[in-house]
## 1
Amino acid sequence: MKIKLDVILDAIEMADDNYTYFLDLETGESVFLADELITGLDNERLEDEIDENPERYLRLPTKFEIHEYHIMEEFIWTLNGERADKLECAIRGRGAFED
């Protein structure tokens, strides 16, 4: 199944302490569970669906759970030799991310 990147990016951007987003792997759409105490929204039906079909729903991270620096480090660890060394040096130290 093809999943639109915009669906995932929008869900990650919208997720916060009040809303947890999931990707429905059957439909390719995002769904969310709201904190009922804060939002007043009733999620019981969807919550039961997610609990009963955990292989169908993939919890998406919030923008606060994504650590760009760690993602870069993990990518560099997949490389070998001079390219890895150059990239590792490029992300370290003062001024590494200045224009």
## 2
Amino acid sequence: MKRSTKIALTGILVAIGLLVFFYSSIKPWLTIRQSQPNPTSSKIVQTSSNEDPYNITNTKFDENPTVFVEAVNMQIGSHNLARFTYSNAADTAYSAGQPIILQAGKPATIRVKNSSGMKTNIHWHGLTIPNDMDGAFDELANGSTKVYSFTPTETGTYWYHSHYRPVETQVGNGMFGPLIVKSEADSRYDLDEILILSDLTSAGGMMGSSNDASDMINGQTGENSQSLQLSGGQIAQLRFINASADNTKNVNFPFSVRVTHQDGYALAKPYTTKNLTLYPGQRMDVEVVLADTENQSYTIQDGNASIRLNYQANTKAAKKSPFVPAKGENPAPALLGKVPDFTIALAGGMSGWTMNGKTFPDTAAMPVKIGQTVKVRFTNGSGMMSIDHPIHIHGAHFQILAINGVSTNDNTWYDTYPIKTGTTTDIAIAFSETGTWVIHCHILNHEDNGMMAAFKVS
């Protein structure tokens, strides 16, 4: 074959690959465009009320909430948009989902009524609960109700969202809400605020940054979100949840904050920073203590969305933090040199986004014994179709053992972690509940296009 012919054929194959990749990326976006929420009533969700439902400082526990999945007209800034929402009753709704506030060790019974106009389901992201309550494979027909009963064992910041494929369609249009399991220490904060990060647009996982979309904090763009209030001597806990279907969120502070929790779990070594990076599905809790001698109005920024924190100066001494660090146990010494129990290659190709060259449901289930700590190795290439993949595992938290063969010495527990481009990442995980637990990329376009598998725990 002539050199010119080979070059031409190579060019054609590359062009075909790019076209297939582009189509697989925008396919769920097209589905979203074709499946917009269709409100059946004239109700408009107003989000400029003086009440802030995401300030949970004094919110009481409710172990028996009802969640209505609705299509509504939502007032966002100057726009009236059709969106989905999780509301607490037929005549009320929330701009970023109904907060569910639970208590560790207390049984919860949650009724979910689907009035969205389409099929859906609900997943309790980050909670270790029985497999039949996880919700990933449920199907709730329009007009149907399902009751979820479980006892949360871990305190922390979690969230709930649709897991009905294509997931990007429903989550991207508002099917998400916060779920908090409060600890005794939480009651000692002067301000306990949930901050849900999301966006109005979705572009098939191609954006990758919150600066590329119409960002929202607690369901509002710009500075339309509720302002936070804090005085000298007080201490605040801010709970950040990245509920975006596809986009990484970059939160910037005009002051230093202390990061205390990741994905619901306390850190062994809290740290201070002025910037947070949250991949889709991740959560971070931070503490804020201010001591300026003059009143200030600060702005916390995420892309083109922001929220104000109004500070009232006084001479009071700062309170002691109620945060208790985790013990910091890490299985790395025992597992670092072990051959991986499973290896998962992450890739994008002509057949979609794949795990070991397969797309769900053709991906192989990985058998695990309950209580067994297994080592899982992820590889993520650096080719033309490579991208960071925030991997979420249902039913358990995990720790990062090594990246490119080098021990991380990371005591942090994750349920969602970015496998970076061009890296090999080893994790350690053990399941305490039997059943089929899915593992997938939480860029929901990638999940919808096949990057999902499962652990079969027995």
